[in-house]
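ok here's the first one, seq then struct tokens
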Amino acid sequence: MLLQRLSLCAGLPLGPRTRSTIICPRLAKPLTQVSLARANGNSFAHRGELRQAKRIVVKLGSAVVTRGDECGLALGRLASVVEQVAMLQNQGREMMIVTSGAVAFGKQRLRHEILLSQSVRQALHSGQNQLKDMSVPVLEARACAAAGQSGLMALYEAMFTQYSTCTAQVLVTNLDFHDDQKRQNLNSTLQELLRMNIVPIINTNDAVVPPPEPNSDLQGVNVISIKDNDSLAARLAVEMKADLLIALSDVEGLYDSPPESDDAKLIDIFYPGDQQSITYGTKSRVGLGGMEAKVKAALWALQGGTSVVIANGTHPKVTGHVITDIVEGKKVGTFFSEVKPAGPTVEQQTEMARNSGRTLAALHPDQRGVIICHLADLLVEKKEEILAANKTDMDLAANLSSALLNRLSLSPAKLNSLAIGLRQIAVASQDSVGRVLRRTRVAHNLELEQITVPIGVLLVIFEARPDCLPQVSALAIASGNALLAKGGKEAANTNRVLHELTQEALDIHGVKEAVQLVSTREEVEDLCRLDKMIDLIIPRGSSELVRNIQRAAKSIPVLGHSEGICHIYVDSEAAIDKVIKIVRDSKCDYPAACNAMETLLVHRDILRTTLFDQIIDMLRTERVKIHAGPRFASYLTFSPSEVKSLRTEYGDLECCIEVVDSMQEAIDHIHRYGSSHTDVIVTENEDTAEQFLQQLDSACVFWNASSRFADGYRFGLGAEVGISTARIHARGPVGLEGLLTTKWVLRGDGHTAADFSEHGTLKYLHENLPVLMCNFI
């Protein structure tokens, strides 16, 4: 059988002391692409670049491969790893596995054999069915490795065969790397295996390997002692010029202190110069190396040009995608990088924002108002600088759609409107934080209050909307919240200038760090995982952006709407002049806005009337492209293009027209195809209008008014952080009030809960009912 397998993979130059077994279900075409990092001999500087990795080494620690009882393999975890490696291999990457587990697998087999042998002997000698207590002697690791290697490889073979992936076993020792000829043979063997699309599965030959030297260490680029699979994986990755080494263990990654300590924080990116600032905990429950050995091996590999990520391969919620997540550049584990960014990490920015935000919340309302007014003044005073940066962004984004360009563009008029809105916010902020909503005298000298307080740290993610930055900054300042702002790259220059002005205003009262602009390469999905640092996420952008954030932010509340599919229903009793004005403003004033009309519902009775002709003529004059709904199309001999979906947000000079028989049918249509954003009825019949207003379940419902009124500025809120279609917390345009929550404050005089048992409370209330009053303020 072995000769048959070898014949399928002829031409592999195996070294005299490198043990290799080949299992080849199929052969695939060789990989010819080379990653940019390896072509330059450098490791990747940022996580996002890991997508370019072509040659990847996956190191499976003993804690990943073995069960909790250290006797036998964790088959579920191993199957998940195999599935991910096979998937990446089939994408055209070159995968190698450095695995532990032979000792554990062998220990399981030998224990079984010893127990079976003992039970047989005892049964023969005693002549009775009852067996004495049997104990298993201490098993020597080399013997366990010898007994387990074949079984471990057979398991890998069976698993990879399910994905039509070829595997080969390679056993090495430290001598194979110190002897030049053996090292060349090993390199040649692995290169040929990779060329033929085979996954090498490498392990130290623990059956013959000597114990590690106690004082040996990882030193230099050319010398590394193979003491465990961490050092083996590092040496192999450098030797094979791998782009990425993924080291899976039973911890999330590298912590700034032992993981079991209360204040331990996971290090997202580790730089070689940070090695002296951390302390190490105890080693893994199994295996030879601890975290210190992993870090030393990782730094050695990094010095040799291979990027490294240390992550948890045992957590049941992430094991099934941890490897693919790392390769996709997601924030998993600890990423080792030689390039240290000039600014703080997003975690550090969040910490600075939270600390400064608490100081901001403690300021007097007048002080917060002064900051906002100063920011409004700066928008006007520095408008030339702002517009110059915006022009740079506009020039770089010339290939964007007209809708996005409209959002990206700033003008003197927009800046003046922003300044006016900010001053309104400053006035409204006077009684925002610390306002008493409810006061209850529970007993003599025992008073309970419910007061408004900031939510905490807000993460606002917006696309090509630079005017969003001063708006949300002012609202965050007024409500005493810290703010992380993540703007689109299209507005990078404009956002940078606006953020500098915001921090200049904040610096008046020493809270400059309360508003942070996230300009690093952080993916939105990674930001959404900071559930211990961020309290609320507010997305401002396309429906796709909002949906992606809502999916990613599993542990952080998201305030916003995924779509702005706004309807206008023209009733049979509508006035012509009002219809034309409202429809024109709702669709044509700012078609890219989320409160622009997308679907026009018309009552059947106004078809083929002067009113309907005037609506169509107006839309054509405004160059609005019309899509016919299914029913409207049935009335026409030559209709416009039929709509593909009645649930469409065009965001441009386009709209859908559909016909309904009644107001109730219009409501049903909106409930089915709308997004609960803003919907309008145009009619002169007050009863019909009131039914529409009462029955329609949308955040904003208007009668004889443009849908464009759904705006915080027009509502008198000064500005808004967005329009929410949720039903909890805030709904509709969210201004200052939507960024506040409450807390309960109890002022007593030595009172205890025992004074107010259920019976005692009822008795007290009965005796003092005329005195106790609930005052709502």
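and now the second one, same deal
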Amino acid sequence: MGPPKSKKRKPTFRRLLKTSSVKIENKTKNRRFKTENTDKKHRKEQRKLRNALKDSASRAPRPLEVYKKRPEEELEDEDEEFLESLPTDMMEDEDLEQIKAMAQKASFVTRDLSSSEPIHSKKRKGEQSAESYEKHPRKMRKEEQKEVIHLLPIKDKSRIIPQSMEKPVEQKVEDDEEDYEDAELSANEEELEEAIPLTAEERETLRAKKLTEKKLCIAMLGSAIISDPNNNIKKLKELRGMLMETDSLVAVTVRKLVMVSLMEIFKDIVPAFRIRPLTEEEKNAKVKRDTQELREFEEGLVSQYKFYLENLEQTIKDWKQKKLKRSQAVALQAYRGLAEVAIRCVCELLVALSHFNFHNNIIVMLVPLMNDSKRNVSDMCCEAMKTLFKEDRLGYASLGAVKVLSGMIKGRHFNVRPELLKTLMWLRIREVDLKRDTAETAPKKRFMNNKEKRKSLSRMQRKWKKAEEKLEKELLEAEASDSKDKKIKLHTETLDIVFLIYFRILKKAQKSVLLPAVLEGLAKFAHLINLEFFDDLLNVLQNLIRSGDLTNRESLHCIQTAFNILSGQGDVLNIDPLKFYTHLYKTLLCLHAGAPNDDIIIVLQCLDVMLTKRRKQVTLQRAMAFVKRLCTLSMHVLPNASIGIMAAIRAVFQAFPKCDLLLDNDGQGSGVYLPELDEPEYCNPQNTSLWELTTLMRHYQPIVRKFAAHLSHGAPSDGSGALGVNLSRRSPGQLFADYSFRDMTFNPPVGAPTTKKRDHFTIGHCLLDQELKKQVDKVLSVPDEDDDTSLDFSQALTQTST
């Protein structure tokens, strides 16, 4: 007969369909757990068996006196002791036998009378276990087990003979003892140094010795990490541990050296990409050994970099909060130096590792320090932020920094330093998506679905269409991350936040110290403002100029902003900026060779936008009035400003050729020139001439003389009166900067004046009045200083008047 049939019914196909996937998954998990448990138990039993074999092989034999005796032997020993204790020489044989018989019975003679327990009472289980524990022999000290190396076995005819040999033991004990002795000696030396007061010279010598040792240790660790970062990444932790140096003699210096060393090491070994954390699937997946080592290196690098940034941040916080540590290895006065080194390291990492992890954390740490009360700390952080804006090509780091700046300015209610806002001027924003809003509202392009493709396209066309779409998708995936569209999108988002900062200040804090920086920033980025804000912004600028609360520089920035708006997208607007022309014309006479000389560069930029680029909207009268006033201004400014102004006049002459009327002495039309009138349209500039050019042709600066002679000839582009290529191709602003007097030197150097030798000299008296000559000779001939003889000029005046 076959095996009995199982009473368990097989599940039908319908029942299998009803079974849920969760239940099936649970069943498979339970089955897997059972197999794992059985395997684990089997391994455990095998391990116990191996350990038992090892113990039996290495166990030492017990001494003979330790073994337990049998109960019969114990009774015989006790009888022998009892009989030996009795005086047998005085007893008869019968009495002795009777005593032996009584000893074998449990009677009151053999009973311990000190105990009050009954004779036949049984002992409790706990007492028996206690007695057995006490009688259990103590284990002897085992010999130290030697390590064995298993060799290849020898196969005999009947069995396999295992082979092994003892592993050679290295002399670690001696080394450990030596290290222990060295540590004890160094500890004793330190205790002696602390106990014995040292002189200043001995203290300085000891400090130099310790500092040299620490420097060597830092150099060894740093060179090892840089030479092989993958294998020595764990030494970063050892080097970072030196940031907690506790020796008060060298603690401050060592911490500073370690901060700077770690900063340079991270700048050298950090990869040129961002390391992302691994997902759970990637962690559980099996990879090659090289890949696993690379993952461990990257994970260790990111963790050590994070801990290093936390140490720097904690150092800065301790300085700001004036928190003294318990160890007191560093004095409270030294915290400022440590914090400044930490801030410098953070600034370097901000610029050098703008692509790496935790860059946003560095920005959050550094932005509040830009508004610090310590001037050197604030300037250091602002310079780092400027460098970041200048070198950021993609725009990710700039966008993160601008977001944090906006939040801090709003959170502090605009109570920040102007230098913080001036850093936004260094943003590398050249192009933005001005049609973003219209593109979002416009209807999106509709693609054909499969049904429409079948109707309109043939089979071959559909095949080609599918191949094209697949190729476009692959090209988009392979495209570089810094594509033009992505960069424009980032720049647009950044500029939106910048304008949000500026408009908030214009709306809520017009009288704050931030207004000049806001106007300067608007003047730079005005051509990128959306067309919807033009009317409101121009009204705000006009109201600011009318208020009269602005300085000359601030009003010039307002004018520059307005014309930058109108020269870009504002060409389509029908706005007459006559008030801005009038205000600039009035402001020109307020400039001079003192501090306002630096404002000339703004004037030159405004003139380029107002007269040269908008020449079709400017009348000849207005252009001639500006030329005359600019010539007057060039008489009382520094030479570099005079060169820039005359270069601007040259550009106006080329844009308005009829301005050469100012070179004639004859007046044109009726009226008299009114130089004090602030309206350029009504001051009659056609009735005057540029007589200032004659004076400027005798200027000590040779470039000023060249420009004056060039303008007096009508600013020709060729011929004898033309300028050289070196001067004609440079803009007014560039000439102003090239011939600057910032170094307090003549640029170019001024030659010595030529001496005019006379052919003959007249010999005679120097004074024509004879009476005066006599009095002078009389005074000069008197040797005695106490004589009261003096010149009487009043008498000579009365005689001549009569």
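notes on #2: The two ends are 174 Å apart (CA to CA). The longest helix spans residues 21-58.
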